[in-house]
From TrEMBL:
Domain of life according to the entry: Bacteria
Residues covered by the MnmG N-terminal domain: 7-138
Name of the protein: tRNA:mU-54 MTase gid
Required co-factors: FAD
Any one cellular-component term (Gene Ontology): cytosol
GO biological process: one example: tRNA wobble uridine modification
Lineage: Bacteria, Bacillati, Bacillota, Bacilli, Lactobacillales
UniProtKB keywords: FAD, Flavoprotein, NAD, tRNA processing
Gene Ontology MF terms: flavin adenine dinucleotide binding
Length: 166
């Protein structure tokens, strides 16, 4: 019988948290790397997963636009982000806005409670071996960005024009 694989997820922001949640709930082991709190970025202030750094708004909630439709699809897929957003929503007209602290705290608690998720709070400087989801976003540490660029044989990454230096 084959052993259960481990999937590396780098980054515990919105995308990385969502990826880790779904992979773990499929019975697959997850090694979730998050450099915070050992290495912070200029935008982050906590060690919580899915920390919203620019705004508390997750944008429009109506089905008549792409953002609202995406949220509806995420709800159908048992999204941890959408579950937490609904539990911690604050009034914002037609937008879905949340209390940042309690939103992130719920996502952090839900993921850390999963028995098949190993949390590693350290900076990753190169891509690990094995199946890996890179969900680091525009605040990717320079060393990891260089590793991703080398792996893809590209000068720039889609989400940023140059690696950030912390």
């Amino acid at each position: 019988m084959a052993s259960i694989p481990t999937v590396n997820v780098i980054g515990a922001g919105l995308a990385g948290s969502e990826a880790a949640w779904h992979i773990a709930n499929m019975g697959v082991n997850v090694r979730l790397y998050e450099m915070r709190p050992s290495k912070m970025t200029p935008a982050h202030h906590t060690a919580q997963f899915a920390e919203l750094v620019c705004t508390n708004s997750l944008r429009a909630n109506q089905l008549a636009n792409a953002a609202g439709l995406l949220k509806a699809e995420m709800r159908q897929m048992d999204s941890i982000v959408m579950q937490a957003a609904e539990h911690h929503a604050v009034p914002a007209g037609g937008a879905l806005a949340v209390d940042r602290d309690t939103f992130s705290a719920e996502i952090t608690a839900a993921i850390t409670a999963l028995p098949n998720v190993e949390i590693i709070n350290e900076e990753i400087t190169s891509l690990p071996d094995g199946i890996t989801v890179v969900a680091t976003g525009p605040l990717t540490a320079a060393s990891l960005a260089k590793s991703i660029q080398a792996f893809n044989d590209e000068d720039d990454l889609h989400f940023l024009m140059r690696p950030h230096r912390f």
